[in-house]
Amino acid sequence: MDRIEIDGAAGGGQLLRTALTLSLCTGTAFDMRGIRAKRTRPGLMRQHLTAVAAAARIGNANVFGAEPGATTLAFDPGDVAPGAYQFSIGTAGSATLVLQTVLPALWRAGNASEIVLEGGTHNPMAPSADFLADTYLPTLARMGIEARIRLERHGFYPAGGGRIVASVDPCTRPSPLAAIDRAASPTLTATALISALSEDIGLRELKVVARHFQLDESALTLHRVPQAIGPGNALVVRVDQGGHVETFTGFGERGVSAEQVAERLVREVRDYIDSGAHVGPHLADQLLLQMALAGSGEFITTAPTDHLKTNAALVEKFLPVEIDWEQIDERRWRVVVRS
């Protein structure tokens, strides 16, 4: 079996998750060395090990080196099996990242699947469950990929304990997507999530967002989260372009005021709106792989992130595609995938 050698020091956990996804989808084995070598705590952590375990179980793979702190991993995929699966991270590590790791393999598996994941659903270092539900999965649906998630319990950092149930329909090959056109006047809504904290925190966050974007009360929601294991706060802003929604999430943290959390998120949303790009920076990182599996596609986004560049180089190792990006103007870039 052909094997691909990967320098894990070139990226973080995302590089490993992308390699797992591509290995399952192509049947190509890989060896990764120097995993997360440049991080403060190098090597595999619990959430990475859960992604490896999920990929191995779904793909009937042989794995060597999957231990806490390990910086070397060998992954030999077998046949992907659709079915019902359940995985628990056991910490606030992101359940959404584990889900994104195995979704492409499951939709190519020939029959429907269901996967239950327990862990963090609203984690500052990962896409939130709201992002998956409102941005990521609807974009995949435009490519013919049908998957749905149900958020049964929120899991905030550091307690975790969230629960997501995802269902995936079979899709042999995604359709190419051109995500270029941008609505002239997007519609904004904001939601403050509050778990075991004062509602005043969320109300103050919403007040800041409303002031900056001139939103009336009908565009603002304060959601009191039931049954979460620990305290938590997230501020979610959705930018609806009419057919495409970009979701931005800010997180409350100890020692940071509600106003600071909101102001920081407002700047992120404003940068995206003012750029004129169709695809936001977070979706761009994740859309690249799906377009490569489709064989072609293009989108207009903001300046390519380091994640996007390292993912592009890795995708080209596994798939017969070329990925290019060119600057359109000061704020927009066109990313093109070609067979």
Structure summarized in a few sentences:
The chain has 339 residues and is an alpha/beta fold. Among the domains are: 1-78, Translation Initiation Factor IF3 (2-Layer Sandwich); 187-275, RNA 3'-terminal phosphate cyclase, insert domain (Dihydrodipicolinate Reductase, domain 2, 2-Layer Sandwich); 276-339. The protein contains eight helices and 16 strands.
Comma- or semicolon-separated keywords:
339 residues; Translation Initiation Factor IF3; Dihydrodipicolinate Reductase, domain 2; four-stranded mixed sheet; 33% helix; globular
CATH topology value of one domain: Dihydrodipicolinate Reductase, domain 2
Helix and strand run = EHEHEEEHEHEEEEHEEEHHEHEE
The major sheet is characterized as: 4 strands, mixed
Structural class: alpha/beta
CATH class of one domain: Alpha Beta
Strand content: 25-35%
For the record, the CATH architecture of one domain stands as: 2-Layer Sandwich
Number of helices: 8
User: What is the CA-atom radius of gyration, in angstroms?
Assistant: 19 Å
The gross shape turns out to be globular
Helix percent reads 25-40%
Query: What do the pLDDT scores average to?
Result: 93
Largest beta sheet: strand ordering: 1-2-4-3
C-alpha termini separation:
23 Å
The CATH homologous superfamily of one domain is called RNA 3'-terminal phosphate cyclase, insert domain
Low-pLDDT segments, ≥5 res:
none
- β-strand number: 16
